[in-house]
């Protein structure tokens, strides 16, 4: 089982396939499921080397209006293999703002069925013909007005069906949320993009847009001239635009690795944390990453561990400590609560103490410290190391220590 995959349906997107795959590998995507909707050059041929490595699956589909059936097939056939699957198009790029890895972002939403991510629409940036290079570097002028549409990254185990290209129906007890953890029940919601957004390069150049019209849509047979035709393209040119170049560094990384690496290099990036191990091995790897100062790598390693050991107390506590260190307080508390439900031990309460202390809730931290001192006998602990730890916790309280380690 893997943590994160992307699913897309595409037709004649040969030029953009590798850029889309390479970019998303660099933000933590481990596998790609691509439905080839009658491409002139079969995608399986274009991506043959990537298919051989196992990081790309290509499924041919024929005819019009195939997007939702493809999504349904993906959920049924591939869903059990992944914690999360994002459903994007080849002109959509997941942009992270407070982490380098999408798996870390998604780990904060594991209690929900899906995460709705908002579009940020980019215009043609004045390009009449298709420019050389990457779309993420060529199209840097976004529309100034907010877009209300979302796309979904879902936990297949909690999904019942795809509704449209934007949203899904969820099993009882599960639902989709936005980055603020508020429910999203339709294709649109109030725009929020503090943590994550989808750069939607829908127009590209005038030449690319003409090709888009020629291809038609994968989610409907109709071609609405108002929203898909030239009237819409020319209208967007008159709208206010804002320069936004969040992906300049990513473009350089994509091009550098594309020059120096083949499909096996990209596959190695996909697989570097996904080899199944014993829990102690994951923890050892995570500690090693922390010692090197790479907290994000440690979190990604524990995301992989969570696929097999996610509900064990040891895994919950280690993940809680990592969330605490990056100040994801609510997520840290939720993980500790899950651990407490299984094992109301002094070790678990101590982690809860650290969470409250570091988030500035000194009163609650003090109450927890007093409870732990009072409960040494209740927990059957007669250990000098624990007495020293609790004495240290008093010192931390007095100092208002916010830098405690796990």
UniProtKB/TrEMBL annotation:
It is a single-pass membrane protein. One of its GO terms (cellular component) is membrane. It is found in: Membrane. Signal peptide: none annotated. InterPro entries: Glyco_transf_92, TPR-like_helical_dom_sf. This is Glycosyl transferase family 2. SUPFAM superfamilies: TPR-like. GO terms for molecular function: glycosyltransferase activity. Its main location: membrane. Pfam families: Glyco_transf_92. Keywords: Glycosyltransferase, Membrane, Transferase, Transmembrane, Transmembrane helix.
């Amino acid at each position: 089982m893997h943590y994160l995959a992307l699913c897309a349906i595409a037709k004649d997107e040969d030029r953009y396939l590798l850029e889309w795959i390479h970019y998303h590998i660099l933000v933590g995507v481990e596998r790609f499921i691509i439905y080839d909707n009658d491409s002139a050059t079969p995608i399986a041929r274009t991506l043959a080397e990537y298919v051989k490595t196992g990081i790309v699956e290509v499924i041919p589909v024929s005819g019009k209006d195939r997007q939702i059936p493809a999504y349904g097939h993906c959920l049924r056939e591939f869903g059990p293999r992944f914690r999360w699957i994002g459903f994007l198009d080849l002109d959509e790029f997941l942009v992270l703002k407070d982490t380098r890895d999408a798996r870390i972002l998604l780990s904060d939403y594991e209690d929900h069925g899906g995460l709705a991510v908002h579009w940020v629409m980019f215009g043609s940036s004045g390009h009449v013909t298709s420019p050389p290079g990457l779309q993420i570097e060529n199209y840097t002028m976004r529309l100034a007005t907010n877009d209300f549409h979302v796309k979904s990254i879902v936990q297949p185990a909690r999904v019942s069906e795809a509704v449209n290209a934007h949203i899904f129906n969820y099993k009882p007890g599960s639902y989709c949320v936005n980055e603020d953890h508020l429910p999203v029940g339709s294709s649109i919601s109030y725009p929020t993009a503090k943590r994550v957004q989808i750069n939607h390069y829908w127009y590209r150049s005038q030449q690319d847009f003409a090709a888009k019209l020629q291809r038609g849509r994968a989610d409907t047979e109709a071609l609405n001239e108002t929203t898909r035709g030239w009237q819409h393209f020319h209208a967007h040119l008159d709208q206010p635009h804002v320069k936004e170049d969040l992906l300049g560094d990513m473009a350089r990384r994509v091009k550098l690795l594309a020059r120096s690496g083949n499909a096996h290099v990209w596959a190695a990036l996909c697989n570097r944390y996904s080899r199944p191990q014993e829990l102690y091995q994951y923890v050892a790897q995570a500690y090693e990453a922390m010692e090197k100062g790479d907290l994000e790598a440690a979190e990604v390693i524990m995301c992989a561990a969570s696929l097999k050991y996610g509900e064990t107390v040891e895994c919950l506590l280690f993940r809680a400590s990592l969330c605490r260190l990056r100040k994801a307080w609510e997520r840290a508390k939720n993980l500790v609560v899950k651990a407490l439900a299984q094992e109301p031990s002094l070790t678990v309460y101590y982690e809860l103490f650290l969470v409250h202390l570091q988030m500035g809730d000194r009163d609650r931290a003090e109450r927890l410290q007093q409870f732990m001192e009072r409960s040494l006998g209740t927990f059957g602990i007669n250990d000098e190391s624990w007495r020293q730890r609790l004495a240290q916790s008093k010192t931390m309280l007095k100092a208002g220590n916010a830098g405690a380690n796990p």
